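Let's study a protein:

___
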Amino acid sequence: MLPETYLISDIQYEKPYTRKIDFETDLDTEEQTQENLINELREKATKYLEENKYPKFNYTVKSDINQSLEIGDTVHVLHPIADIMTEVLEYEYDVISRKIKTLTFGNFTRDVQTKFNNIKSTIEQLGQNLSKQNVTINEQTKLINSLNKNGIVYIDDNEILILDKLPKSQAKNIWRFGLGGIGFSSNGYEGPFETAMTMDGQINANFITSGTLSVDRIEGLGNQIQIAISNRLNEGVSKVKTETGYTFDKDGLTIEKTNAKTKSTLNETGLNIKDATGSNEESLLFAGYDNETGETVVKSKNMTVEKYLTVGKYSRIEDYEKGTGVFWIGGNN
């Protein structure tokens, strides 16, 4: 806290307004002396006061709509409390009547920083994606430009061939274009075709680069992963379910297998293990935040402790030869 406790603005109003503001230091650890911290705090507080000594308004003014106003135009607003020079922030336009229905004014640009930050983040992400895509495009361009000079085009009655050697029976690298599809083989005319697009809608490739990918379903080979998708991949998915009994959705991670004795759910609240043998799904173990008590707790229907249970810092419940004992294990009392 500053020694003077308060900083006073050079602009005074009929009713004083005070506010406590916390600031973070930008000084390195070795520079954080008492004198440096106070000087930095005073400098930041003075700057804040200078930037905020005039009240900021964000409001809607109801008036006769001036159809000639545009975003950013300055308007003089007369009010019993304040005489304001304001700007047009937004307006609602009726496309049917071709008239502006409402105007919103203010003396600062509402949400502009947030909107620009979101736009900036989106642009940066697109830039990264485009950068990766450009690398692939450049590599493919070099490959096509270098190898296409050496290819031989051969056309017969049924297909078009692009190959590295004639006759086609002796070719090793070959593209085949025909009614069945398009395919590339590095093993001769008969294939197999490692890269292909066939007339039944199937595409086979080791690697696919795409700017936007719209799909309804992704399946991994061997059923290792299976994702049903109802929206674009870059917006995320609402649910992921595996054949092994794991489900990721809005409720968290749920582990529920056929004929299993328990059902487990893990989310931001904690871990909850329920009895899956009955219809009521009774809770067997809960570890997490309890909304009723407002505390972090562990609740168990039954608990077995192999050796001992420590309570707090000083007491322990322990099994020993003659029975069960409660022992004091620390402290001065």
User: Anything to note?
Assistant: The chain has two helices and 22 strands. Residues 305-333 form one domain.
